[in-house]
Structure prediction request, 558 residues.
Amino acid sequence: MDTDSFLLNGVGVQAGVAYGVVRWMAPSVVFRDLVIDLPEMDEAKQLYDRSANFVESQLIKLAEKSVGEPKAILEAQVQIAKDPALRKKVFSYIDKQVPLLKAIFDSGEEFRVLFERLGGIYAERISDLQDIINRISAAIAGLESPGLPHSDTPYILVADDLAPADTATLDPKVVSGILIAKGGPTCHAAIIARSLEIPTVVAIANLDKVRSGTSVLIDGDSGVVRVGIDGVLAGEVIAASKVNTVSSITVGPSKFRDGEPFSLLVNVGTKREIEQVSAKAVDGVGLFRTEFLYLNRTSEPTLDEQVDYYSMLFDKFEGKSVTVRTIDAGADKPLPFLGLERESNPALGVRGFRVTKSRREVIERQLEAISIAAKDRGAIVSVMAPMISTVAETEEFVSLARSFGLARAGVMVEVPAAVLCADEILSVCDFVSIGTNDLAQYLFAADRESPQLSSLHDPWNVALLRAVEIVAAAGARRGKAVSVCGEVAADPLFSLALIGLGVTSLSVGAASVGKLRAIISRNSRSELSGIVRRAIAITDPKLLNSFISGEVVAAQSI
Ligand code: PEP
Ligand code: MG
Prediction:
């Protein structure tokens, strides 16, 4: 590496090595409040026209290179950019001496309110409208267009933070790696990046020192980012990284060495995941994150739309189990159409099942859609509620689900209170699934989005395993299924520890299924149980990890 090269360290959240040129995601700016020198009235109108034309031609070029749904969206945006009604509204504000950026912002707001009132397809265009308002404002302010950088050639996406909605729309053929300054291993941007199998590192200090256009080599395993590395050296590192990959078994039922079956399930959420998931590769869907379908929506999806999405998945999983989680909005997954109030501590606020307090009809409509989609389809459909804290909430959800004809209902265990009451919770529902991402957040009182606290999200902190042990034991006593669907289940070694504690299934991103099947096939449940019972006394995360890795049969040895 030359003198301009340096190393940065973060937390690797999706394995793999990627080399490429950095493109920064433009930071989000509140254009209304941006202070820039603005021209007089006539010039302001000309500047608006020039900027709107620029945005229009930018979008036409992008549309020409796109196909399918993205092309249709871009073409519709072109119409908004040259919309005479928007232009007229902006000019009327300029005539009233309103500063240009505020004139554009206020015009956008007026149209947003109108679209919301009109509902239907108009309401669906609100995010497109917002994007156009931002693009025109950025052009006026001389800033890069907001959102994901557009490029014909692959690049490494670098961002201060990445909303799940942005991550869900990025194209893995163009974005070959992701670096995020903020976030933690279980943040939702990381979860989606993992599902796209894009090498990703989060929680990187000093990432702002990396300029757009610089070449970087990123290692999504170790979290090391080499900035300014030359192509030859990068090629050698990439070649070496291919030698030690974990073996994978991609087909066939999952079973232990002695032939005992073990249920391996898949997590899905985005439309792309539903389209790409293969029912053949897994025993079913353990977690369908329904809120991922609606991240960009400003209006509630209609009953028919919801039925279509759920049917698409149920058709694929004919004869297999599919667990649909009701909308888990809030914290880092805001769903604008729910109209939830801003809270000072959203992770501890109205999220998950708590939304039923203010928007019960949304959850009811969702259960109705799931029930319609499940009817006459071969998938074995269960529903599950997120963020359950009490036995009473569990009972409320189960009876609500049953009132829509959904016989199998369970809840997620993500809150320490639910761990401590797992026995009673399991007595009133059919199954539980442990959401270790949130459970770790609440158990260690460590925001899953915080880069400074990512070490508390090291799953080898034994308190997490001890919590799982309590829930798995309750499941065994009650004869009910206990699954784990948090990100830690995808770590091959950790998955063995979970199985040793007695969980009855694991649900992971599609990319991790093959590795887990391989490592499970080398081990036996009774051996794992013995190993983990001894390990659970170890409080040092590194020692706990090395004890388990020393005892189990690892996948690399296949
Ligand atoms: C979890 O919390 O572990 C979980 C699976 O749910 P989510 O990551 O969507 O919050
Ligand atoms: Mg959760």
